[in-house]
Amino acid sequence: MAHRFRGKIVVVTGASSGIGRAAAHEFARQGATLVLAARSHDSLEAAAAECRALGAEAVAIPTDVADEHAVRDLVATTTTRFGRIDVFVGNAALFVYGLFEQTPTEAFKRVVDTNLYGHLHAITALLPHWKQRGEGTYVLVGSIQSLLSAPYQSAYVTSKHAALGLVDVLGDEFAGTGIRFAALLPSTIDTPIYQNGANYTGKTSHPLPPTVSVERAGRAVVRTALHPKRYRFVGR
Ligand SMILES: NC(=O)c1ccc[n+]([C@@H]2O[C@H](COP(=O)([O-])OP(=O)(O)OC[C@H]3O[C@@H](n4cnc5c(N)ncnc54)[C@H](OP(=O)(O)O)[C@@H]3O)[C@@H](O)[C@H]2O)c1
């Protein structure tokens, strides 16, 4: 792939770490102009600086995707500054470990607020803009857990199933238009998500092998944006 995103405006949420940060690097190599979002200011600025070092224009806009108003501002600020959004990668997510009965309701809701409603907030803000332009691509970074169950992960599995359901329905409703919805469903990627998530089990958590490199997952995000299809898998 060589500069396939030159002149394209790409927003990546959860770009301060892991798959989102690797995807931002790959979009930068492909010539995209990037708007990076996550909550933590410093690591997001560092990710934007890495993209600029790769030759891309990149800005950081600290955003909590669970906050509807903040996501609306992210979309509005981007369209005002750059004129449009070609691709929006909904990648931000939280993880929580624990049996259902160990998981506090507030922690469960926080995961759903981020991993499901984060997408709802973004898509609701994007649709008027994309309908006016007649095009736009939404890439959901889901999970193999969007399709499968996993004990100790009730909040995450619930949120990932629901987000895929939302994007599936929108894919049907906008079929045949220039507005496309695609899901990347990774298996186990070696990222900090397993350490970042709250853990109510009393045990240490690690990714289940075999793991896939974060760079490969980042390239898969870019491929999904380039060739949107309903489901794309990365890893076993
Ligand atoms: N790693 C895996 O094995 C794996 C497997 C399947 C799917 N996935 C999916 O891949 C995506 C990326 O995960 P990752 O493994 O790269 O995890 P990660 O390294 O922990 O990155 C998660 C990103 O989401 C951001 N984030 C979390 N809550 C947010 C919020 N409320 N608002 C805005 N940003 C928020 C984090 O930044 P801040 O904390 O700064 O906000 C961070 O940039 C997720 O959708 C995850 O479910 C991962």
Measured on Cα atoms, how large is the radius of gyration? 17 Å
Number of helices: 8
Strand order across the largest sheet: 3-2-1-4-6-7-9
Task: State the distance separating the first and last CA atoms.
Answer: 23 Å
Strand and helix order: EHEHEHEEHHEHEHEHE
Structural class given helices, strands, pairing? alpha/beta
What is the CATH homology-level superfamily? NAD(P)-binding Rossmann-like Domain
Strand content: 15-25%
Q: What would CATH call the class?
A: Alpha Beta
Bound heterogens, unique: NADP nicotinamide-adenine-dinucleotide phosphate
Q: Segments where pLDDT lies below 50 for 5+ residues?
A: none
Helix content range: 40-55%
The CATH topology is: Rossmann fold
| CATH architecture descriptor name | 3-Layer(aba) Sandwich
User: Major beta sheet, specifics?
Assistant: 7 strands, parallel
Oligomeric status of the shown chains?
A: single chain
Domain count: 1
Mean pLDDT equals 97
Number of extended strands: 9
* Coarse morphology: globular
